Task: structure prediction
Amino acid sequence: MLTIEQLIKIIIGTLVFVAVVLGVYLFFKNYVIDFFKNLGGNETAKLMLSLIK
Result:
């Protein structure tokens, strides 16, 4: 059976985990994903132009 202290530790651990996942998601959403979208667009455009020439 779980004690009150163990339940509190589990709840706090879960909240910390959710906060870290949310922070990582917001970081990748704002910086890294936009970088790769722009990079992919430029590479595709260069590929199309090279095929046309």
